[in-house]
Every structure is written in C-alpha cells, then in structure tokens.
Design a protein that fits this description.
Pfam families: DMRL_synthase. This is 6,7-dimethyl-8-ribityllumazine synthase. The protein is an alpha/beta fold and 162 residues long. The chain is built from 5 helices and 4 strands, in the order βαβαβαβαα. A 4-stranded parallel β-sheet has the order 2-1-3-4, sandwiched between helices. It is globular and about 50 Å long.
Length: 162
C-alpha cells in the first residue's frame, strides 16, 4: 500500500500564486499577514524580489475565480491561494457572491489540476470575520499551511497519463 501525504518542508521549488480581494480589506489584510507569516516561517521567500510568490489584488471576492483561473492555467504555479471576506448584509447579495466564488474556485482547481486554497471567509458579521482573521486566530496562517501541504502532495502523486 502506498500512502501519499503532503509535507511542510522542502518548499524550495514551490511557486505560489495568491489572489486577494480588496473589498473588506480590514479583514483580508489581516488574512494576508497571517498567510505570509506562515509561508515565510516554512521557507517560502516572501520578499519583493521573490520568485516563489506572486500576489494579485482584485476588487472583491466575486472576481477571485477569474484571476485564480488565469494564474493556475499559466503553468507557473503549483498552488494558488485565494483570500477574501464576504460578510452577510440585509440583501441576498451575500448568497449570490458566496455561491459564485465558492463554485468558481472549485471549478478552477478541477479544470486546471492546480490546487486552489479556498481562503474566503463567509460570515454573518464583521466581528466574526475579524475573529477569524486575527482577534482569536488568523485563518490566513492555516491557508498558507494548506497551500504548502497541497503543493507537496500534488508533487508526490503519480502524474496522469496522456
């Protein structure tokens, strides 16, 4: 029996694309800080001169799948991380955005074979979003770890046959 698992070490050749929404930047900025801290502490070069990490800013979470698709399809990245925050309001807009961004991100991973980490918070209140972005714990840290694990796991799995 062969067991495949991702690891958090040996990240020297790993290239990561990160897509982050500007909308709700009070929250997404904190997620980004946690994610970058996690990646850096595990050996990813996050300096401005880095060849391991590229960051693309989009207006809001709805735009995340399109840019994630472009990054994943480029062949340049082994994993893509998405960061956003959709906070419920008084209209059905929340439901529409959440449904489309989650379906879109899942489709990118399926269509390209590149793991896409779903780091889009979907909360009822700003307080809940802030708690998940650093007041209690920063889920950005976890999204960074998920990216390292999935990048490593995908490299370890057998390659598909043409």
């Amino acid at each position: 029996m062969t067991v495949f698992e991702g690891r958090f070490t040996d990240v020297a050749g790993l290239r990561i694309g990160l897509v982050i929404a500007r909308f709700n930047d009070l929250v997404t900025g904190k997620l980004l800080s946690g994610c970058l801290d996690s990646l850096s502490r595990h050996g990813i070069d996050i300096s401005p001169e880095s060849t391991q990490l590229d960051v693309a800013w989009v207006p809001g979470s709805f735009e995340i799948p399109l840019v994630a698709q472009r990054l994943a399809a480029s062949g340049r990245y082994q994993v893509v991380i998405t960061l956003g925050a959709v906070i419920r309001g008084d209209t059905p807009h929340f439901d529409v955005v959440v449904a489309e961004v989650s379906k879109g991100v899942a489709a990118v991973a399926r269509d390209t074979g590149v793991p896409v980490i779903f780091g889009v918070l979907t909360t009822d209140t700003l307080q809940q979003a802030l708690e998940r972005a650093g007041i209690k714990s920063n889920l950005g840290w976890s999204y960074g770890l998920q990216a390292l694990e999935m990048g490593s796991l995908m490299a370890a799995l057998p390659q598909p046959t043409p």
